[in-house]
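Progress against Task 2.4 (sequence-to-structure conversion) is shown through the following example record, which the project officer requested during the mid-term review.
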Amino acid sequence: MHVVHLSVECFPLAKVGGLADVVGALPRYQRKLGVDAWVVCPFYDKPFTRDHNFSSIAKGSFFQGSEELHYEVLKETSDSLGFPLYLIHIPSKLDRQEIYCYPDEAEQWIAFQHAFLHWLKNSQIKPDVINCHDHHVGLIPFLTKHASDFKEFENVKTVFTVHNGQYQGWMNWSKGILLPAFDTWKWGLLDWDGLINPLAVAIKCCDAFTTVSEGYLQELYRQANGLEDLFFSEAAKGYGIVNGIDDAYWNPGEDKLIPVNYDVESSKKGKAKNKKVFCEKYGLDETLPLLTYIGRFATEKGADLLSEIVVNVFSNNENKISIFILGSGDTQIQTNLEKLLTEYPGRLAAFFGYNETLAHEVYAAADMILMPSRVEPCGLNQLYAMKYGTIPIVRRIGGLKDTVRDVSEKKGYGFVFPEATPEDAASAIERALDYIGQRGKMQTIRRKEMELDFSWDKSAQQYIDLYNRL
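Structure tokens generated for the chain above:
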């Protein structure tokens, strides 16, 4: 079976969030299971593309409106990621340093999808399945069925994976002229509330759609930023498949990015050594439980609650806990946290930005991780944390609900709270402090969570089973 994954993110080529981690791992695990899985992404002027060798395998051109665009398809020569990686380069469109936030983003993603299909057609490549990831490539299920130039792909199965349904790629109908010629009788498939909505297009036209957890699939029927009725009407072709993690890369026993390696048996001493190094670096007390937050400063992540949570926790637990925050995003959230750094020296520390090495160091050093999310389709941070013996304190939402079991339940290994409020989060943190303060409890939870299997093996097979059904 030949499967092509189409995405604008793929770790380590280009990463903003969990989308990149999924696309950078799932195809590799599928190949281990006998599937010929490829990844196709836009070209970016980033360290990965500068440090690896690429060969030109195809060139072509097409008109996007009145503009003629020339593209080149580049293949990474060594397959260093464990799967064939192809990049589509288009001067002035797909040749930039950043992934998002350009004013012509709609034009970029239309060009990417058009060039992809143009290349497949000219090269006579016909995959069995095209797995499209998020709204940036949401037009593909429509174009393969209804674009006049690509009729040969109308029987190719399309699977659309929803990583985050809050972002939908809305564009004005004035952009319609930029699309490849299509059957205009089908224009209604492109429309949602008077706009072209690529996410809605994908859900309408794909052969099946997946979400990155079963819990998130159920939530989309009730909360999908205006697409609730659509998801509900198309529910028969929806599947929830929880994300896995790359346990070769996220493995404290072999991780080259942390000071001291450890496994389940040596986790108590190993984490203590990592914590000592980390706390010395950031001026924190290594004898206190260390709580961390890692992620984007965005309201959907509950990051706007962090300042109040910090104040509540320190007010009620003086000299009982240290906190470290790693993240970036909303500038007001960062400003609020910066003010607290001066109020709680030696108790609160932060790094504003994202640093892959530092993230690994934090997972290895921290005792607990906080995820007060309002929206969390799957969540990977809690999975990484548990792999490193760091206890999750999470809101009961989406994939967090699917992957973290509260200690009050049989075989529980985390702390779950109901609502995204400072009070609920602070209460869960205090409950965790009380629990792990009891003799032997911390190590018992660590052992449970580190022995959990959240690898991609099971999830990759579920995707393959879906492809086979189609």
